[in-house]
TrEMBL record, chains A, B:
This is Magnesium transporter MgtE. Homodimer. It is found in: Cell membrane; Membrane. It is a multi-pass membrane protein. The keyword Transmembrane helix applies. It comes from the Bacteria. The chain crosses the membrane at residues 287-307, 313-340, 361-383, 389-414, 426-449. GO terms for molecular function: magnesium ion transmembrane transporter activity; metal ion binding. GO terms for cellular component: plasma membrane. The keyword Transmembrane helix applies. The gene is mgtE.
Amino acid sequence: MSSENAIKNPHELLERLNELHPSDIAYSLKKIEKESEDDFYYVLKEIPDEILGEVILELPDNLREDVYTLLPSQRLSDVVYELDSDDATDIIQEIEEVDEEKAKEVFEGLEEEDKHEINWLKRYHEDEAGSYMQTELFSANINETISDSIKRLKEGKESDELENIHQVYIVNNEKKLIASILLEDLIIFDFEKTYEQIINEHEENRFKPFVVHDKDHIDEVAKQVEKYDLNVVPVVGYQGILVGRITSDDILDVIEENATEQMYQLAGVNDDFEHEDNLLNTAKKRALWLFLNLGTAILASLVIGMFDKTIEAFVALAILMPIVASMGGNAGTQTLAVTVRQLALGEIDFDNSKDAIKKEVFISLANGFIFAIIIGIIAWFWFNTALLGLVIALSMIINLFSAGFFGASIPLVLKKMDIDPAIGSTVLLTTVTDIVGFFSFLMLAKLILL
Amino acid sequence: MSSENAIKNPHELLERLNELHPSDIAYSLKKIEKESEDDFYYVLKEIPDEILGEVILELPDNLREDVYTLLPSQRLSDVVYELDSDDATDIIQEIEEVDEEKAKEVFEGLEEEDKHEINWLKRYHEDEAGSYMQTELFSANINETISDSIKRLKEGKESDELENIHQVYIVNNEKKLIASILLEDLIIFDFEKTYEQIINEHEENRFKPFVVHDKDHIDEVAKQVEKYDLNVVPVVGYQGILVGRITSDDILDVIEENATEQMYQLAGVNDDFEHEDNLLNTAKKRALWLFLNLGTAILASLVIGMFDKTIEAFVALAILMPIVASMGGNAGTQTLAVTVRQLALGEIDFDNSKDAIKKEVFISLANGFIFAIIIGIIAWFWFNTALLGLVIALSMIINLFSAGFFGASIPLVLKKMDIDPAIGSTVLLTTVTDIVGFFSFLMLAKLILL
């Protein structure tokens, strides 16, 4: 698998299309575009419709926008026509963002059935399971024989409408989903029997489908898929009517995206604005976070300002004070990352939140004592003042205690208030560790040293 | 799906075993254990062998260890016997860590074939694809008819050996993997034909399997599965011999674990030691990181110490200096998180690393100018000294520039040196932003103010 080797020659790429996966073609196209926009457009024009759609889906956002601008509406309709309903809907919506008029033209160029499905999928909010599902699936009426349904499967596969099929969904006359039979089971049954016969011959829960609802939050669906090791999950709507299915590759993307989002949020970055063409927009979004942080830093400075006379009398305090704040910030960040992640993975919940806080306080405090001794001795000998060592040691213990306590409590409290615990928790935490760090150190110095 | 409602009554749980998924049973068991160890043991004793193995796999580490200690060797053998080879190997290795003697007894209680497979899987390193694969799969010789192979599938399913089957792997007489046919294709073919006939009737690449090698790194396998939207991937060994397969649920776990690891590493936490029963071990591992950070903080203090006379003359410097360092640290963390994540997702590579650095420098610098103006004005009016505003403004620009430059370069350089860019990059970065922040601010103050 030489997937990492891009084919930078447009003619070679076009010749080898059949042996390449769409994501490899996309990777090569990305490299071609960097060297020549003309070559990029040339390849776009020449790639067959049935491949191009899948390739577009693998391109980065900015190149997708280029494609929507470069290709004529009729060509885009032909490409969208070849895609599964969920992907087709995504692309139509993306074109809308670039050029509403063109999106309308592309949409009008589709067949009635596709238009109907896209209009229907578009109604779902982007967080709802419905917006991740595809309507293409293999279903059968309970009164049908297996062999009749397999004939339909064959037709669906020949027309490229059905792929990635792992089970047949059995519905009743009202289209309500009542069973799901894996192909690995189906293939060993007697094809002349009806599904009703098959279901009756087996124990009650044997074919009971695991379902999600079209209005469920996609993160919940992802959690279930992970928990129950599912490959595909059927989606039902009003009154249990089967409306679509979500495949594990989409779930994988959701999980990967959520992890990215969480990591970014902890660092004060908004994922949605990281792929902007205009970097000033990205800068603006990041500035919001830095602005909050500036507020925190000024607050900490005000605390220091309360002790200006103490510092003037004893400049060593100015030299040492960042150490206490920095250690508190780091210990707090450790606690925060662990708590946020374990909350997301379901390892911490409200049932055991007290244990989680206790655990984190214990760990921070243990380290607080160790580093109190180390820095106490260093400060003592550095400035030849035993009491200065005592001051910094005590304030280290106080600040690492508060780092553990607040690092664990802040995300839990945010979660309790139904706020995403990754958002804003870092800035809240550093406010605490900075202020507690500077205040405890300078206050103790004022009391003990002067 | 009331998956979140634990059944805390042991009798009720045992009665409802058949309608519950192993991970739901594990969830309830966790809650039962919290309330009574006796009830926990009682349920363990009563759960049938064929369910218990799957349940153990879903329990948290500490409860798994309890299970290995509580249950007799013979019972553990019966439980392991029911599992797929990859899971059986994992459990035997986990028992080894708790009690080597007992692990030997459990192993001796297995059938010869299972012993052979476990011994073989144990040879793989934990990062190798081989250690994630299961040897149970549905394969057929190329000269076999479809119907003969389906008979074997039926037997395999009846004996619970085969499950989660999506394709048949076709091998030649030397057991070399030559094709992979999806069940959705197989079910519509003529069952009386041999696989050779089927393959010859179709175009060349139609059934070409995507394979990974048993010695491949599991992270690489995960990347491929994600990239090519695979459900299952066959694993081949020496000379292309089919040795096993990896299913997407295992890949999902790998992706989730890698994301956790990355997030933890950025925060200075080692994932491997976060689930220790002895919290002092967790504290010790976190202390290592804090120790590094202490070194950084002391370095920054030494820089401040170079300017003790300047601070004595002008205590406002002590009050304001943490602002510059803190803003640099935060802007740098933003850049670092984005760069580390995009490197991991393959969005940044060495081809476009210069663009990535340029982008980050531009964003940081843009924010550097904005915050220079804001903090410059604040400092000017706060201390009624225009030049102090100039000093902090200039040092803000310098430090945010270095935050962007080093935040993007450090992970890239680490990656170039084949070091995981998430490890250690935070501490390197804050060293830079602290030292540049304090030095530029105090040096400029000395030059301009005094």
